[in-house]
Amino acid sequence: MTAPATAAGRWASLWGLAIVPLLLLGAVLAYLVATGGGLKTLQGPPVEQLKVSRVTLPERGVIQVHLVNDGPQAVTVPQVMVDDAFWSFTAQPAEPIPRLGRATLTIPYPWVDGEAHKVALLTSLGTVFEAEIPVATLTPQPGRDLLVRFGLVGLYVGVVPVVLGMLWFPWMRRLSARAMNFILALTVGLLVYLAVGTYLDAQEFAAALPAFWQGTPAVLLITLLTLGVLLALGGKRQPEEAPLGLSYRIATGIGLHNLGEGLAIGAAFALGEAALGTFLILGFTLHNITEGLGIVAPVVRQKPRFIQFALLALIAGGPAILGTWLGGFAFNPVLATVFLAVGVGAIVQVVWEVGRLVARNTAALGAPLVGWSTLGGFTVGVALMYFTAFFVKF
């Protein structure tokens, strides 16, 4: 037998051993589907589960309820109640909603601007699923005027405070090496707070997802995957590229965090909570000014060009504009969860890199890594973010 034939035989044998368990698994699954595994007499009542992903008011006198079938079987919704009264509606698609399927119910109902309404969905098996409209108001529709207004909101929340924080750069260049190490430790504290806050925001969005998305573990897994990829890529960088590259990575992590802030503001306006939206704008503007300081801290001994400062500000603050648009016009909790989880991984990776920079600087100064200077800087960074967050937490 020739060498190629022997190699082909080994290859076929290898894949044959890999495929046999899969074939047996398929046979077992087919048996269970066909016979119920001999447990059909023990089966309970059918399980129905619907997730109301969003309720919108696209025009006067119309309510739209967006559904996802989160259960193990198809669901039919033959009746709808609005404020305890049965109401006619149309469904798109009209047939039963299959597992993991989506549907939109359009209800012609004379909702009252500024008032609360309750929608109840009755399935063919008698299960009731409810959705609330806390404050009835027209759902924003994409248009040039609103795009500009929401874009300005994102600008005020994201870009402006970051630029203002970066204006501390000339002052920071005059600081001593020990004082700059304090600022870098402050940056670590700031980023740690952002990582924790972004992770909690991602988990909040994940909790609103249908169960099949497995949002809670998905956030952790996406975070770890992002962190691993960034650490692997980080091993290929040249040392001389580190300061400016580190600033770009800090800006990227902060930008993903600011995306979540934009989502919160846009969603508040979309739900008719204008006062809350304005409150969030003011709070996040104050809260984010310290982010600019953290972005420019690694390059304080460098001479970045103006275009690089502008790009850093855009990377860190620009996502707030995108988040405001998405939150106001087409909020998607799946994308929000993914973006924020990626942001957590990016921020944690930057914490690692800035922490290494602090360790090198501390060693050069002949001081212990965990001393009063570094611990004080870290504490001040966390405290700044914590106390300015009083304006956006309620």
What key attributes describe this structure?
394 residues; alpha+beta; Immunoglobulin-like; 2 domains; four-stranded antiparallel beta sheet; 8 strands; 11% strand; flat
Short description:
The chain is an alpha+beta fold.
Describe this structure in words.
There is one protein chain. 60% of the residues lie in helices and 11% in strands. It has two domains: 84 residues, Immunoglobulin-like (Sandwich), CATH 2.60.40; 248 residues. The termini are far apart. With 394 residues, it is of the alpha+beta class. The strands form two sheets. Strands 1-2-6-5 form a four-stranded antiparallel beta sheet, with no helix packed on it. A four-stranded antiparallel beta sheet has the order 4-3-7-8, with no helix packed on it. Strand 3 and strand 4 form a beta hairpin. The chain is flat and about 75 Å long.
Q: Give me the secondary-structure category.
A: alpha+beta
Based on CA atoms alone, the radius of gyration comes out at: 27 Å
Q: Tell me the number of strands.
A: 8
Order of helices and strands: HEEEEEEEEHHHHHHHHHH
The gross shape turns out to be: flat
How far do the termini sit from each other? 78 Å
Percent of residues in helices = 55-70%
Task: Tally the helices.
Answer: 11
Strand order of the largest sheet: 1-2-6-5
Count of separate structural domains? 2
Q: Oligomerization state of this entry?
A: single chain
Q: In this structure, how is the largest beta sheet organized?
A: 4 strands, antiparallel
Mean pLDDT across residues: 83
**How much beta, percentage-wise?**
5-15%
Residue runs with pLDDT of under 50 for 5 or more positions: none
